[in-house]
Specification:
The chain is built from 12 helices and 8 strands. The protein has 319 residues and is α/β, with parallel strands linked by helices.
Length: 319
């Protein structure tokens, strides 16, 4: 349901996350002002915006004229003064602390109504981001999404030592109004929640391959057809609680001592990088897999398949 707590959203920095966020906010009928640094790129941003809607329309999730309707809610500008009515602003620029702090200074100068400044940073914590802020130090938080932000509903929210609890709560409720599923960290941690879990699994997947226990394809087959599908409908704490913690502790004591505890990227990655075999986008088209001849449209279809249903709940604007 559309929130009455805010009417205008600012997005600073277009590209992979910014484009996706503009689809999410305008797709829920909120006026969205996008600040860009390179006005000559606006046609490309509009093209990316339309492409996202085309994908959702092709899935039968919205009517064919939805792109035209939602595009009326989006504007592009180079002038921070155009953000003057925005109550919430998502900062989506590259991971450059100096640039981010320059942007926050401009927000302080131009945005009297802003209640929450939300960085999508995947590495900087709020205390660092707000280090040079003067008047809005208490409103700078992290709202870290997973890409694409309009498809993947999970956001993790992190506050700093000087964050106003009201700003955090406002951002949380704003994300809920956008049909997101926010999780609030009690304290900052590198990688927040999602990447810590993902990279703990990645570390052990690499260990299994490097130790000669199995091949990469075996790991992926395990994930596709064993426990990962379960965790789309129940959580890991639910699962082990239901299984009885007395059984769980026995497995912990047996398996934990054998798990990888390396603290840097292993040779399985660094050796491939040294050879130029960096994955699907490499000139060699090789990483852990050989990507020659792979139907990339079909691959992207598999990437998006689990997330289409989350779009069905959107309160789409009708005019």
């Amino acid at each position: 349901m559309k929130s009455k707590e805010f009417t205008s959203v600012g997005i600073i920095g277009m590209g992979m996350i910014g484009d996706s966020m503009s689809v999410l906010t305008s797709g829920h009928g909120y006026k969205t002002v996008c600040v860009v640094r390179r006005p000559e790129m606006i046609p490309e941003y509009q093209k990316a915006y339309a492409a996202y809607f085309d994908q959702m329309i092709a899935q039968g999730l919205m009517p064919e004229n939805q792109t035209e309707i939602c595009a009326k809610y989006v504007s592009y500008t180079t002038d921070y003064a155009d953000l003057k009515d925005c109550e919430i602003i998502f900062e989506c620029v590259t991971e450059d602390l100096t640039l981010k702090q320059q942007i926050y200074a401009k927000i302080e100068e131009n945005c009297p109504k802003v209640r929450a400044i939300c960085s999508v940073s995947s590495s900087f914590v709020p205390d660092v981001l707000a280090g040079n802020a003067r008047t809005y130090k208490d409103r700078i938080i992290v709202t870290h999404p997973f890409n694409p932000a309009h498809m993947v509903p999970y956001f993790e929210i992190c506050s700093g030592a000087e964050t106003d609890p009201a700003a955090l709560e406002f951002a949380k409720e704003a994300l809920k109004a956008l049909d997101r599923k926010p999780a609030v960290l009690k304290k900052p941690a590198p990688g927040f929640i999602g990447n810590r879990l993902q990279f703990a699994l990645w570390r052990e997947a690499l260990n299994l391959v490097e130790s000669g226990i199995c091949d990469p394809r075996d790991v992926d087959t395990c994930l596709n057809y064993s426990f990962c599908p379960r965790y789309t409908s129940i959580g890991i704490f639910e699962h082990f609680d239901n299984g009885d913690l007395r059984l769980n502790i026995t497995t912990c004591d047996t398996v934990f001592p054998t798990l990888s505890n390396i603290d840097k990227g292993p040779a399985a990655i660094t050796d491939r990088i040294a050879r130029g075999d960096t994955g699907a986008r490499a000139e060699s088209k090789t990483g852990f897999y050989d990507w020659h001849g792979v139907d990339m449209d079909a691959y992207r279809g598999r990437v998006n398949a689990p997330y289409w249903d989350f779009v069905k709940s959107w309160d789409l604007p009708e005019a």
